[in-house]
Amino acid sequence: MAGAVEVPGKMLALMKREAGESFKIETIPVPNPQGDEVLIKVDANAICGSDINLYRWNEIARVIAALPFTPGHETTGTVVRCGPEATIKEGQRVCVENHYFCGKCYQCEHQNFSICRNMNQYGHGKGTPHGGCSEYSIVPSKYCYQLKTNISPAEAACLEPMGVAHNAIERLEVEDEDVLVIGCGPIGVLVIAVAKAMGARRVFGADINPRQLDLAKQMGADDVINTSEHNLRDVIMEKTNGNGIGRICECSGAPPAVNTLWTSLRKGGNVVLIGLPKQPIHIEDPLTNVVFKAVQIRTVHGRSFNDFRHTWEECERLVAEGKVKLRDVITHEFPMSKFEDAFQTLFSGKACKIVIYPQQ
Ligand SMILES: [Zn+2]
Ligand SMILES: [Zn+2]
Q: How far apart are CA 131 and CA 189, in angstroms?
């Protein structure tokens, strides 16, 4: 199947074939798309916090991934070859919907694709060995989001994590509401930017790291609270005339934050949980802090569960219109040949989003 673009027979890709630290850069054959698959030339791949687990191959990695695989799930590329049943044309720029839903389970039958109970995952060796840290990659047509604008490859790669933030903010219903975002890591600062873009009144960012709080301000937070210096509940009560805050988005996953956020919440308020607590969570006084407050608690996993394309479209629109400055969260960029430097930078805690370019 010859196409307009020349595709070489071999390519460079990061691989993890056995348990142990890091990845290996290997020269492997460029795969041929079958059925509805397309072959994309990868333009950019952003690194995610969860890739740290895959790099180190810790206990979490053994649950969320399967050997062998190519890492990278925040991926954008250009279609260069199409399988016989592909529904996308060569030359189209796409982002990868990394949550590979089955299309057959109860959730999928009810159009809740992003919480498919048999979910596979691109870049994790789940149902596919392929991932975005590769010069070329195979993706089924149905897991491609077709870009509509000319946003940069680095921005397009970051639409995947931004989608999680967007989904959370849609669930939270922030228009004309004050919002508290706990945890100002990559997802938290994206939540702040999306909340402002979607009409929140005041947005507060809370974290223990001054560098993250600076970025939170840059991304649109009206005020930031360093929770290693101040009692979060006291500050929030002071700023809300003792009412508590109407909307909280929890992005830290830190058990003390998850356990106590309820005391800052206004009666009748909404909470959305994104951060992943690695220990059990425990709420003191659940009657007064939760049940009698008539709160609405939501959680998210990936994009809008009944219409993931809506999330992709809205995120691309907000970036293309300059309403979310995705560029500002990208602190580092590396050629794929320097992937070790990229991961060391991530481990140093000095980076927000890091983008890798497989063609360099
Ligand atoms: Zn990710
Ligand atoms: Zn399913």
A: 26
